[in-house]
Amino acid sequence: MNKGNYYKLKTRDWFKKKGYAVEIIEKMHRVYTGGKVIFIKRDVFGADIMACNDTETILANSVFGRANVAARIKEFKKYPNGGLKRWIVVWETRAQEPEIIEVDTNE
Length: 107
Prior knowledge:
Elements: H1 3-17, E1 21-24, E2 27-33, E3 36-42, E4 49-52, E5 57-64, H2 69-76, E6 85-91, E7 99-102
Parallel strand pairs: 5-6
Antiparallel strand pairs: 1-4, 2-3, 4-5, 6-7
């Protein structure tokens, strides 16, 4: 399993422990090249996870470390938020809790 999947699943489990209903919302595309099939994952509206409870819905993108945070925020900003919260969930090595960056409050 690559690091991206590991932290995405860790984020999913973290939301579930907090009482959210959670779905991974990436789209999988097949690209045919050179007689081979390559699968490419694309985030939906900049998010790879959707979590909701009775009071809120969150689109989240999980990352390892802060190196890719600016790119994730830029990707989220391509789309209107539709009243949903958009979070970057940042995991550091051996962290039990992530750092949450709320995209729409950091204008």
